[in-house]
Amino acid sequence: MESLNKVRITTLADDYAGGGRCLAQHGVSYFIEIEEKEETFYYLFDTGLYHEPILFNANRLAIPIDRIQKVILSHSHYDHTGGLIGLLEALESKEREVFAHPEVFKKSY
Fold first, then answer.
1. N or C: which end of the chain has fewer CB within 10 A?
2. pTM for the whole thing?
């Protein structure tokens, strides 16, 4: 990434529901848009505890979640990875790369 035009990060999941407009859940998920020259890249950083609130919030906020190219998991805690499978199933239209530590599915609390 040589020259970034714009980076936008939208919170799709956390403990705060934004005054009732969105659904809250334990854990986090961020939708990241990076504009570089003439191209835009879409990433999902963490997947919260459940995928349903993330999909609801993305729809409510007009976030193009179906454009996600890569999913990045920060660590193995369930409140950061729990929504992964459900999200990938809901976004079945194409394969997406998932980046995570090799022990991401190790049980941890």
1. C
2. 0.87
